[in-house]
Design goal:
Structural class: alpha+beta
Radius of gyration: 18 Å
Largest sheet: 2 strands, antiparallel
Number of helices: 6
Strand content: 5-15%
Order of helices and strands: HEEHHHEEHEEH
Helix content: 40-55%
Mean pLDDT: 87
């Protein structure tokens, strides 16, 4: 998983399918099971990811959490004056995080900077621990300095987010850079005709 954060890995399970559409790696319980097993290390002590098997309720809950995190990522990368945060997304994120024995809570006042608070909770079932681990990483990212390096990929048809690792990085991956350069080339040649 290189330097990719767990929260970023979660949101990029929705990505360009290479055919002009969007693919979803979490379309099925099997997709979620495979994804969790691929991220055994980052999930840490939250659950035994190698033995994890998703059920439909867990899939629905993870997809709902992913939607909330994507919404908050979009807010974090937007340019211009700060607007109101989607409180529904913020509430979903914080509710998922509360399932952990010690949960981070993201507080983000309108027009202000986000802050992370720690809240104590009781032990939870596996589904809740998974959601809490995913939400906790999203809260750590959005509430920390790393948020300033969060980017939405500007390549045509790309829906991914990434953490900018070096000053010249513009796209989430090289294929997006190639697609952007090809699109730019075609625009220039059409304008010249």
């Amino acid at each position: 998983m290189s330097a990719q954060r767990l929260a970023v890995a979660l949101v990029v399970t929705r990505h360009h399918d290479g055919k002009g559409g969007v693919a979803d790696d979490l379309e099925t319980t099997g997709g979620l099971t495979a994804w969790v097993r691929e991220h055994t290390g980052p999930l840490g002590d939250a659950l035994d990811a190698r033995a994890f098997t998703a059920d439909p309720e867990t899939l629905a809950a993870v997809r709902e959490l992913r939607g909330a995190v994507r919404t908050l990522f979009a807010h974090a990368v937007r340019t211009g004056p700060p607007g109101p945060v989607d409180t529904g997304a913020l509430d979903r994120l914080n509710a998922a995080a509360r399932a952990a024995p010690r949960a981070p809570r993201l507080e983000w006042p309108d027009g202000g900077a986000p802050a992370v608070r720690t809240v104590r909770t009781d032990a939870a079932p596996e589904r809740d621990r998974l959601l809490a681990a995913l939400a906790g990483d999203a809260i750590a990212l959005l509430g920390g300095e790393e948020r300033t390096r969060l980017r939405a990929c500007p390549a045509p048809r790309c829906v991914r987010y990434f953490i900018k690792e070096h000053p010249r990085q513009e796209w989430c991956k090289p294929s997006c850079g190639n697609r952007a350069r090809v699109a730019r080339h075609h625009r220039r040649h059409r304008a010249a005709e």
